[in-house]
Design goal:
Blueprint (H helix, E strand, L loop, with lengths): L12 H12 L6 E2 L5 E2 L6 E7 L2 H5 L17 E7 L5 E9 L11 E6 L7 E2 L2 E2 L1 E2 L2 H7 L17
Antiparallel strand pairs: 1-3, 2-3, 3-4, 4-5, 5-6, 6-9, 7-8
Length: 156
């Protein structure tokens, strides 16, 4: 099986982590999904969203209207810039659609939180990459949208 946009087809975590993290550094070349930064629902900050892969599928998902019944293509990557109060990128949150069986409990999505250059951040001595419990907690409720929230229509 071939994977979309260069993500490794191995189910092992190391193959996904290495291949996917290499792609994060070039996120500015991806399609930007919003015309202007929009407020995050996770805190008092704004975000910009970039996507590579299934751009059309992602645009069908509306955070205010769950139930788009979209399944994203394998290899699709979503990178959100988290902007600080000075509108600078403070970190990136990343999702990539892994190969079948990577994490069936959440649509095979892989997660990461990195610095602005794509280097994974740590929390309590653990790199923030892979099957992150804090990501599962929020995304689990969006099963009918392939566990995604999309971009608000007001930000397009």
């Amino acid at each position: 099986m071939a994977c979309v946009a260069g993500i490794g087809c191995e189910v092992g975590t190391v193959e996904i982590d290495d291949a996917t993290l290499d792609r994060v550094a070039t996120y500015h070349a991806m399609s930007r999904s919003n015309a202007q930064p929009y407020p995050s629902t996770l805190g008092p900050f704004n975000v910009n969203c970039f996507i590579e892969g299934d751009v059309d599928g992602y645009r069908k998902i509306d955070p205010d209207r769950p139930g788009a019944n979209v399944t994203m293509a394998r290899g699709t990557m979503i990178v959100r810039e988290v902007l600080d109060s000075s509108w600078r990128v403070s970190k990136l949150t990343v999702m990539a659609k892994g190969p079948p069986g990577y994490d069936p409990s959440l649509g095979d999505w892989w997660f990461a939180v990195t610095d602005p250059s794509g280097i994974p951040l740590e929390e309590n001595g653990t790199l923030l990459v892979g099957r992150l419990a804090q990501c599962h907690d929020c995304h689990r409720e969006r099963g009918r949208d392939d566990f995604l929230f999309g971009v608000p229509s007001t930000a397009h």
